[in-house]
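Example record

The entry below shows one chain as it appears in the dataset: sequence first, then structure tokens.
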Amino acid sequence: MQLSDLKNLKIAVVGAGYGGAAAAKALSLLGARVDVYEQASQIREVGAGIGLRPSTMNRFRQWGIFDAIAKVSSPSDYFEILTATADPIMKETWPGIHDFTAETKTHLIHRGDFIDALLGVLPEGMVQLGHKLETVHDKGDRSVLTFAGGRTVEADLVVGADGIKSVVRRLLFSDKGPVFSGEHAYRAVISVDDAYGTVTDDNLRMYIGRGTKVYLLPLRHRNQVSFDITALCPDSTWAPQVTKDDLLATVQGFDERLVNITRDLDMDTVNIRAVYDIDPVDTWHSDSVVLVGDAAHSMLHHQGQGANSAIEDAGALADALRQADSLKQGLALYQATRKPVTDELQRISRQGWTEEEINDVFPGQKPATAAPQE
């Protein structure tokens, strides 16, 4: 699109998570007018640590915000997979872009630090809190958003970045709900001093056994470590009630250091969630509405690609609008570029965790199925 056309675009981003904040940054750099509408009254990212891949960090360099992310993250050289009792299975460098001009390291970061850094590089006033989306009226060449309380906003382009339970997706593209994986994720951040000597460098380690995965993701810039237990469980309640004894049962037979970490956890600090994704969505866009991030392709966390995919979506959307002759062509190019990639990531992220596959990966540990609950 011509520079003048891009500067005349009025864009409304729904959701101020990773995908929404990144899309706002990338699209504002095109010169478009961008406003972000977030339903929460304050933005607070819970959970633990994630890894930002080299391609993601290179997007941040392209957008001029690399330093803001790098100063609250720790570069990592490799990841390691071990048995429950800490015998090595594999050790590999992070897949990346290997040339002399690009970033080659994965950066480990706390989710809260990450969203704070992303929002911190947006102009003041761009993000408007307390806007819960109720309806989207797609008029073809523009769309009208209606929020709780009655406020309406009209935009040339609406970017649906409103997560796994996306209202934009449900109203315009797919009414299929999230899919329960048969797992729970239990996440906490602890001091390195409380990690019983398991953290000696800046590299991710994952222990696998009996249908359970335990992740240790160092956050050296915080002198902390993200401790994540992912375990099979038939309870599909979004935020289930879990006891310390329940957690200890999931790591029974694991390396005693991991058992000790679990035993020491303050349950009030543990984020407990059933794990969901969505089935691939056939179409991500109309002429004036487009999906990004979890709204388009929420995936299980086994590949560690959810946040990275959202950032790549934002970059690809901005690239496509810049390259195409029209908004309509740009949205089609964006989907053609990103959907094959995320379809495959969604598929791979489910691998080994369906009822058919799980017995091969973890014999005798097939997950029971249950209907989703709110």
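Notes for this example: DSSP finds twelve helices and 18 strands in the chain. Residues 327-350 form the longest helix (24 residues).
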